[in-house]
Amino acid sequence: MQEWTKSPSAPQQIGVLLFDGFSNHCLANTVEPLRAANTLAGRKLYDWQFIALESGPVTSSSGLQVAPHRPLQTASGDMLMVMPSYGFRAHGGWRTLSGLRSADQRFKVLAGLDTGSWLLAQAGLLDGHRATIHWEELTGFTERFPDVEAHRERYVIDRNRITCSGAMAAFDLVLHLIARDQGQALALEVSQLFMTRDSARSHAGGAGATSGYVNKALALMQEHLEIPLPVSEIANRVGRSQKALSVRMQSELGAGPAQVYRRLRLNLARKLVAETDLSIGEVALRAGYEDPSALTRAFKAEFGVTPRALRTS
């Protein structure tokens, strides 16, 4: 069962190793959900740095230049995300491979995103592990690295190795990591922010995908925040009994329908409090509460601060 919320922890230190030809799309789908998690949590949960083999700028496949924060040989942290993307075979020289082997001693987890799996495998860092890669390269990957158990999955988590098949899958992976490390409540907020409805994607190595009717229930909740529907009505509309919906949602999200629905409504209230000058009474109505006092009690219980205090701060 997924945990709905988790206790605060120290920021995770993440290094993103870029090579010339990296994908802007993959990079954005990796760091933007982390940035959103920090913003929504109101504190730094993730701290990332851009890393390169050398100190000069790295140029993406579309010409965007990124100035790295530090070279690979001085970097360390909780996770190193290797992101070569296009032209990855040209980066498989001794300097890259020895740098990755050395980094394995300084990072707790190594992750190959897009075609980064190829470089990790070439360095011998995926031997005996399950892994995936961009599906266009999967056949060649399987033939080239017989000691790696290759799978056609969006992402694979196997012990201290993570591999991911492409830019869209990178978003799924990061959302899963947020849910695993920070709780499903925050992952759901990040998903809402990026307007993703269906997270039921194929993957291996951890829970995180939701069933079709749970996604339909979430969509119904999102569409009826101002005038909330009874949970029994939501269950009826998705073609399940209330008990079946409750059991499945508890199993997949770590919370029942009522708790999830309340969080969605309070997320809206928090956004309106922070970003508009609507009165607390109007915010309460838009979030499905009959009066400001009811909203304030629920808001403080969920976020540890009253709406007025949040707005003042």
TrEMBL record:
Against SMART domains, the record matches this protein to:
HTH_ARAC
Keyword set, alphabetical order = DNA-binding, Transcription, Transcription regulation
Q: Which residues form the HTH araC/xylS-type domain?
A: 215-313
Per UniProt, what is one GO molecular function of this protein? sequence-specific DNA binding
UniProt keyword annotation of DNA-binding present: yes
Which CDD domains does this one have?
GATase1_AraC_ArgR_like
Short name of one Pfam family: DJ-1_PfpI
Is Methyltransferase one of the keywords UniProt gives this record?
no
Organism domain of life: Bacteria
Report the InterPro entries cross-referenced here.
Class_I_gatase-like, DJ-1/PfpI, Homeodomain-like_sf, HTH_AraC, HTH_AraC-typ_CS, INH-QAR
What name goes with this protein?
Carnitine catabolism transcriptional activator
Q: Which organism is it from?
A: Ruegeria atlantica
Kindly list the organism's lineage: Bacteria, Pseudomonadati, Pseudomonadota, Alphaproteobacteria, Rhodobacterales
